[in-house]
What we know:
By secondary structure, the chain is an alpha+beta fold. It is 25% helix and 34% strand.
Amino acid sequence: xxxxxxxxxxxxxxxxxxxxxxxxxxxxxxxxxxxxxxxxxxxxxxxxxxxxxxxxxxxxxxxxxxxxxxxxxxxxxxxxxxxxxxxxxxxxxxxxxxxxxxxxxxxxxxxxxxxxxxxxxxxxxxxxxxx
Length: 131
């Protein structure tokens, strides 16, 4: 697996796992991937995340969430790419599906959701949307 854009790879592995109705998927561990997965877990899109130390880097085992055989994740979209970074001020932050979804923002205070960034009144780079 080529890791030119680790965030896109994370979203693609989760998207493919949901489409194949898998219970778990494995994602290479990194600090940024861990923060994004914690946001997904806190918002209820995935069941659990565990760090498996099997080599130098390790992997995250992500337990996907389903309710009545329907996935909790309906869509994932990468916004800011390596070739085109998207930055927004705090008053310009997007609302995903009028607040039903979540935008993941990389700010000076760390990786947070769009709701937390509005509360802290800070802007940043929009990494991805999940709904």
